[in-house]
Amino acid sequence: MGKKELSRGNYHNLGWDGSLTTMCGHGLIANSFAQKMIDRVKEERLTPEKAARYMAKLCVCGAFNTSRAERILHEARMSAPEARIPVTLT
After folding, report:
1. Separation CA 19–CA 56 (nearest Å)
2. For residue 56, which of 77, 28, 31, 35 has the smallest C-alpha distance?
3. For 51, which of 39, 46, 80, 87 could close a Cys bridge (C-beta 3.0–4.6 Å)?
4. CA distance 50 to 37
């Protein structure tokens, strides 16, 4: 998805509304990093708490709300499609 689609507010295709990137007053949370954290939480490679802490480290103004980010990431994990069952060839 290119910048043109993202600039129009077309975040529903990403599975989130972009609120993670707007939590820093200086805009230091990149869309791609937020999406990477969401993907890792959905894949259960990171907990929502740990992902929120990683994102908060990028915010130099200290306005990043980690509890809200944890809630958003937890909701993203719960909305993830069921884990794929591996198919074995016989």
Report:
1. 14
2. 28
3. 46
4. 9
The tokens of 69 are what? 């980010």
**Nearest one of 61, 60, 51 to 20, comparing CA atoms:** 51
Enter the pTM of the model: 0.69
Q: What are 10's two structure tokens?
A: 């077309």
Residue type, 53: R
- As a whole number of angstroms, the distance between CA 88 and CA 21 comes to 40
Helices (H) and strands (E) counted in the chain, each on its own, are: 4, 0
- Mean pLDDT score of the chain: 78
Say yes or no to pLDDT of 16 above 60: no
Q: How far apart are CA 90 and CA 81, in angstroms?
A: 26
Spatial separation of the C-alpha atoms in residues 87 and 90, rounded to whole Å: 10
Q: Which helix (H) or strand (E) holds 31?
A: helix 31-42
